[in-house]
Write a structure and sequence with these properties.
The structure holds 2 protein chains of 2 kinds. Chain A is mostly helical. Helix content of chain A is about 65%, strand content about 0%. Chain A is globular and about 55 Å long. Chain B is α+β, with helices and mostly antiparallel strands. Classes of the chains: A mainly alpha, B alpha+beta. At the A-B interface, helix 2, helix 3, helix 4, helix 5 and helix 6 of A face helix 1, helix 2, helix 3, strand 4 and strand 16 of B.
Chain lengths: ~180, ~425
Amino acid sequence: MRLESGLVDRARAGDLAAFEALVSPLIESASQLARAILRDWHEAEDAVQEATFKAWRAVARLRDDTTSLRPWYLTIVANEARSRRRGRWWNVIRLAEPRSDFHGPGPEEHASQSVDLERAMRLLSDRERLILFMHYYLDLPLDEIGRVLGLSTQGVKSRMYRATRSMRPALRCQEGL
Amino acid sequence: MDDRLRQELIAYFDHEVGQPPAGIRDRVLHKLAEPGLLDRDRRAHRRVRLLGQVAGAAAFVIAIAAFAGLLILTRLHQTTTVPATPHASAPPNAEPTAEPTVAPTPAASPTRVSAAFAAPDSVPAIVFGDPVDRTQKDAVAWDGSGLGRLATDGAPNPAGTLFLTTTSVKDRQGRTVASVAGIGKKPPTWSDDGRMLCRTTPDAGLGVAAGTPVSLQVSPLGGAWRTVGQYGTADENSGVDIAACSTLNDRAVLVGRMYQGPSVRQLWVVQLSTGRVVWSRPFPSDGATVFAVIASHDGASVAVGRATCCPTSGFTTTVYGPGGEPVGMFAGHAGGYAGAAFSWDGSRMVLAAGADETEVTVIDVRTGTTVWRAPAGRKVAGVVVEPVAGGRVGIALNGTGAFAGPDGYVPAADLYLVDAAGRARKVDTQIRP
């Protein structure tokens, strides 16, 4: 996303409408990112709300050469979501049910592939899952993912390679189909 | 492979995450424009400028605040504490028996709680989200009376009298009682007396070198952190969590885990005053997967949820007593854990069992007998515990057990208050656990 310098200047000067125009297109992606971390829409919306407020407070400190607000904003959202993740009060712990409605290529492979992918995803760390989510689902380029997660582009690349490689054994039966 | 993997991952995340609730963009932006938030922003900037200009005066103010915090702490410690009551061991493998039930009553349409919660601050309360306005915190006394809204935010202590935010501790009226420094990204845990905070540090995260020792620390409100001892290690994807922190019983229950799926590696029960390990148990990765540990407030009862992995099956919950001896074992259910929470003295446990997790019961841990059975078809959405010996458990039940409804928000649930004898009362409002 290319920023209109006029909007950035106005946001820096305290123009809320300009700031809203800048972050508005990002809120849905941001809330999906928060949901991926927190696994709860209610918590995710609260995290995005707080992160947006923090972004508004910090927008005056955006660098002059900023060309895209997205990684900066998503970084704030990701940090806010992570800080909330283990702060929940309620005391029930439940393991997710194995998914039974995953869309596979054919109904006969339906259940087994669902379990295979579920198992493969469980073998990944939270960070690896987030990298896959941001790259494949939010369509973020590797350098932006790196900025959001505090990694180098090479670091993102190698983690993504490791993640997909570690998923292969679990998905091997699917590849052979 | 890449295109296929991409398609499968997109479908996977479509299911796991999906689309945000309708109107989220408008709500976020609308909230941002609320006068209160902008005023808060201006005040914050004003404070920063003021602090920069009069640093000396700020130091003086901090010193006064610290003194005031000490005074408040001194007053808090003068109130009565609840003694912990360890219970005797019992034979393992006790099976729940059929016992009394409470018939379901039709839920009235939820309405927003408008009256203020008026019970004295000394009365413990259950704190929950308003069934209509999810941003509002409500409370009800443990006898089901006095339903009202609170003017505060943050994580409540066990009695629901104080609330921990990212920077301070507030009372029910939203007044700041103490400041909290150095919270970091992982919020501290309330101790069971509700007047101390406990934390493990460092938390797992970027930049944490493999093998970094993890310290358990405790702090009085507004005070400095004291290190109890070091237990386990942290790195980018593993760390140590607190399952219970009991200043009343001088012990804590710590859980070393990998943050990648259900993987508990080690359990420690430690003495807070000396740092001594009372008992511990490793869970080798080649055995059955341990994916959850819960503890009674005093750390005298610990429940460990196990299963075989992938696809998960064979769920069991083993309960350990004060010295680490097995006290009972209970079968889980098709989708997960059996034990959800202990009552305050550890004598009762909420179980969610059955083929479809629809057999929600409160059991006597020592005998395995069922003292209460939830209405059929309801599932546990949350549990809260009355902070007195022999006290009640509050069980939030809804039709699915989900923490999020189809709209993505925490669904409203019925709240049942169940005492040790199995007498239950349904609270007059629905709640958001």
